[in-house]
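Deliverable D2.4 — example input (structure tokens):
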């Protein structure tokens, strides 16, 4: 028998029950379990297996228990999300299948008896056991046979509500575009707008032609033209006429000397005062002209940098573009009307930007619009009627040889001249030649047509002729 002093004394039943109850109450309740996204239940169980039971303290055991509960809760939550996503995918697949059935039914020819049947339905050929033969050659386009053409996507209109969120396109580090390229691109953009929105039918009904000929805007623009019907009837000339009217309106309200006055700007009085002082100067007073142009640069820069300038420009551009669309009326395509107005509004805003850029230089800018009936001038105009004498080469040679035999039908852009005084003398440069459409003069025996062309005045500081763009 072993000595009694080496035996471990037995624990009484009452004491063991007290210890078990103490361990139970020392564990935290389940509602206070912490959630974690970084520890999985598998890793926790592996940690518990590798750690001997004797080395697990009460704190470690509690921490592992909490992490295990959190991981299980996270797994349950992810399973719920996965289930919802699967249900959503099934709904989308069903909707897509229905849309495909509708598209195929709409594209099928009317003569096809199975055109209105949904996918999966029993067709007559399947019921009767007849399989139609597939033609070995495709039908020739335009021959009347059915061809499955590619679906043309409807053009998405401009979303002006996104412009404020997208913000401006910054061009830091880029040199500004030169004057000649800037003006050419601007008037080309106006022509592109007119090509897109001008009334498209190549042949108009007689009543429509009469309505367009009598349109007040067309009559005012072609005031010296007796027969306006050929211009309105031809699609190319009709589009060019719309571009010309738009260009003149933008130049009048956004680019000429008095464009701020024409647009109703509150600071137009100070600008017009500088122009009046400049026009009253004697010929050759270069120093005084340079001083006034420096004041002009400072004044226009101050106006452009005002906090309310962008708001004013956006408001007046929207107003003027809306008025112009209303004036053109039946000569334009009507749909979508909002997109038509938005794109023209952008052109007006660019016109104001070009006008401010011109006046924010120490240079004098002069504009003159060629009128219908003016004589053609090689120095100030560029011909746009390339096939007037049969083809482009023959037309060019005829105009170069006999320029006096041609007259302006209507002008698509103004003549723009820039005068610089920084060298102590006036240096005049034709930055943009007027783009004009020509016609041959009618020959009158013994009668010489009076010249009314747009020429550079010798004793004043403006472009002479009736086509001056001013207030």
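Example output (designed residues):
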């Amino acid at each position: 028998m072993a000595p009694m002093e080496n035996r471990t004394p037995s624990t009484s039943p009452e004491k063991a029950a007290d210890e078990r109850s103490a361990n139970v109450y020392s564990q935290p309740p389940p509602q206070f379990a912490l959630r974690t996204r970084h520890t999985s239940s598998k890793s926790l169980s592996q940690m518990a297996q590798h750690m001997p039971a004797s080395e697990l303290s009460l704190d470690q055991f509690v921490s592992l228990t909490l992490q295990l509960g959190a991981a299980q809760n996270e797994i349950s939550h992810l399973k719920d999300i996965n289930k919802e996503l699967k249900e959503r995918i099934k709904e989308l697949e069903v909707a897509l299948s229905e849309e495909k059935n509708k598209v195929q039914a709409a594209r099928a020819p009317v003569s096809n008896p199975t055109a209105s049947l949904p996918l999966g339905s029993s067709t007559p050929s399947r019921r009767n056991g007849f399989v139609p033969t597939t033609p070995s050659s495709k039908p020739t386009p335009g021959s009347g046979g059915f061809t499955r053409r590619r679906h043309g996507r409807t053009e998405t209109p401009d979303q002006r509500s996104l412009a404020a969120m997208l913000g401006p396109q910054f061009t830091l580090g880029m040199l500004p575009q030169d004057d000649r390229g800037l003006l050419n691109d601007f008037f080309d953009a106006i022509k592109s707008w007119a090509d897109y929105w001008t009334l498209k039918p190549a042949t108009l009904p007689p009543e429509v032609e009469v309505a367009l000929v009598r349109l007040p805007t067309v009559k005012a623009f072609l005031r010296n033209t007796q027969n306006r019907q050929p211009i309105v009837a031809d699609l190319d000339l009709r589009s060019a006429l719309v571009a010309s009217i738009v260009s003149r309106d933008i130049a009048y309200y956004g680019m000429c000397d008095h464009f701020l006055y024409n647009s109703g700007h509150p600071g137009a009085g100070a600008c017009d005062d500088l122009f009046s002082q400049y026009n009253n100067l004697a010929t050759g007073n270069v120093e005084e002209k340079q001083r006034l142009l420096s004041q002009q640069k400072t004044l226009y820069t101050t106006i452009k940098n005002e906090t309310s300038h962008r708001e004013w420009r956006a408001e007046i551009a929207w107003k003027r573009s809306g008025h112009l669309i209303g004036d053109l009326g039946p000569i334009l395509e009507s749909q979508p009307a909002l997109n038509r107005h938005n794109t023209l509004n952008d052109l007006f805003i660019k016109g104001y930007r070009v006008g401010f850029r011109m006046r924010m230089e120490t240079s004098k800018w002069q504009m003159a619009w060629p009128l219908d009936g003016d004589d053609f001038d090689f120095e100030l105009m560029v011909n746009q009627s390339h096939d007037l004498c049969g083809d482009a080469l023959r037309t060019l040679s005829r105009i170069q040889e006999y320029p006096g035999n041609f007259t302006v039908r209507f002008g698509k852009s103004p003549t723009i001249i820039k005068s610089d005084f920084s060298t102590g003398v006036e240096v005049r440069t034709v930055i943009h030649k007027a783009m004009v459409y020509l016609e041959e003069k009618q020959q009158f025996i013994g009668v010489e047509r009076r010249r009314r062309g747009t020429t550079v005045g010798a004793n004043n500081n403006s472009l002479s002729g009736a086509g001056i763009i001013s207030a």
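The chain has a mean pLDDT of 78.
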